[in-house]
Amino acid sequence: MANMRKYFEVVIFTSTPGYLSQPVLEAFDPNYYAPYRLYREHTTLENGERVKDLSILNRDLSKVIIIDTLASNYRLQPENGITIQKWHGEAGDNELNRMETFLEEFSFLLAISQADDVRPFLKTLRDMDGNIPNAWDMYKQKLRKLTSEKDQTMPLVSAEDSSPKPAQNTIISFVGSLIGLNKPLTSTAAAVQTQPSFNLVDMIERLAKEERVLLVKQLEDEKKHIAEMQKLQEEMIKKQTEENKANKLTMFDAMMGAGQPQITGQPPLHEPK
To answer: Where residue 188 falls among pLDDT bands split at 50, 70, 90?
Structure first.
């Protein structure tokens, strides 16, 4: 969840009532990496069944992806959906990790290709394999093979020649045709094209890996900072408690402000007896 927030606006949408889901989500996501949470109360009744209507998100649906264990839950917008296998408690289950890898790398592909719509690309993957992480691996193999074949026929150019390589143009066009690219390339994509021995798949995997390493360090730093703040707070509470005991203050006295520093010129709030 912490990783996905770097690439997407994360929303939790569950079919379970809020009064049951909220305690679970508080434990699952105490830092609110998913700031928006929708429950059964937000679902839509369709032919006697509850469905998740993505239009209530008030977001551009061309940029929305829903991941669910049941395709019927998002049947109003099936082109936006990814079905993931339900977890049954298996210790070796790694579907979420594989989905995370796909979403990381997919976000870089979208950025490079400047796609207007995620839905054509999702359809391409679904047509390859119903399991999106599997389809993504297959797609990368095809793209890597295409890149390698084009690299072998790519003419050498001097360092001063910054014109786009025909082979690389073909690769970008191939990707763009799958994900609805219909505008000029971004500066990132243009820069990528001018790199020698360009390999889109390798670059995407490298960028995702580097971002993951940075995230781990960031989370470790955040955890360390939180621990330090908690320790400081505990020390302050301990010190205040000891001072209250020394002054023979009760809990009620402390709540009423006795023993607290007084503003100059003001009488004490409470005189201990």
So the answer is: very low
